[in-house]
Design a protein that fits this description.
By secondary structure, this protein is of the alpha+beta class. About 15% of the residues lie in helices and about 35% in strands. The strands form six sheets. Strands 10, 11, 14 and 17 form a four-stranded mixed β-sheet that branches. Strands 13-12-15-16 form a four-stranded antiparallel β-sheet, with no helix packed on it. A hairpin with a 5-residue loop joins strand 12 and strand 13. About 30% of the residues are buried.
Amino acid sequence: MGKVFVFNYNRCNGCRGCQVACKDEHCDQAWPSYTEAQPIIGQFWMKVQDRERGKVPWVKVTYEHTWCNHCEKCTLIEMAPDAVYRRDDGLVIIDPEKAKGVEGLVEACPFNAVYWNEGLSLAQKCTGCAHLLDSGWDVPRCVDACATEALRFMDEEEAKAIGAEPSELGKAMGSKIWYLNVPKRFVVGTLVDLAEDEVVIGAKAELLAADGTLVAELETDDFGDFKFDQVNPAAYTIRLSAPKKTIEVAADCTSEDLFVGVIDASA
């Protein structure tokens, strides 16, 4: 079955240690037969980007990681089988000699994880630190650098056992990058009584599907806030049962996380 990378969204704090470690391992340092050196500027074989979710005052940041998925159905191998190959351990390697001058590999990657080195006329990407694994390392450099264990390298069976799985595109491509705790949507708001100049504490908040089915239920907290987290993207209705009246609010989080605002529950 081989090894897979597992990225746990809940454990990543955005430190970019993995990104820096990748640069440290590969910039100004070629690994013959594995890869030429990674340029200092313009390439991130492990790329970390911030994704802001929600709107003020409810904002969360999710850290998205992009690197080679080492796909079983690798489009680069299909395009240039003499220049790109898959090792027995599943890692996909762009041959630094045979791939020189082979154009189109950057565009062939559906995950945008391949870069073009203009100076060398060579497509480059993450190698999975194959040179380190071949020299006895248990994990690639990025995994070794991750202080929170958000990034791990493990047997596929172990990854399945903890509930990790590839993205939808990854499943189709046979990706070796699997995920845990993938963010869905959050829907939040604040319930107040403007007549009393107070927040409403302990009111029942219900999240209802389009057909009226109850999806989730909670109570407003000590600040009058309610937050439905990890809900599927869809159009919902929020029913708020305050002491003075019941309120229903439309909440469509199909395309983005949603703050429905400050809701007045005064009579």
